[in-house]
User: Which sequence fits this backbone?
């Protein structure tokens, strides 16, 4: 789907982890946006912090992927 080259096992694992983190992030954003609309009060800040944490997990997973690619070359 993405590449004709088959990634090594470790990279496949990292890709799955990133995809899972990203799916979690999008789900969290969806739920949070609904929650913020419902609450309509400054508690939204707490929810934004939560979304920010979810985003950091996605970025961390991406960093791991990039590090692997540069160190391993695949
Ligand atoms: Zn590799």
Assistant:
């Amino acid at each position: 789907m993405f590449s004709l080259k088959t990634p090594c096992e470790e990279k496949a694992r990292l890709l799955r982890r990133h995809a899972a983190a990203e799916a979690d992030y999008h789900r969290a954003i969806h739920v949070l946006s609904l929650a913020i609309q419902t609450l309509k009060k400054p508690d939204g800040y707490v929810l934004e912090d939560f979304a920010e944490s979810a985003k950091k997990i996605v970025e961390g997973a991406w960093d791991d992927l990039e590090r692997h690619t540069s160190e391993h070359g695949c």
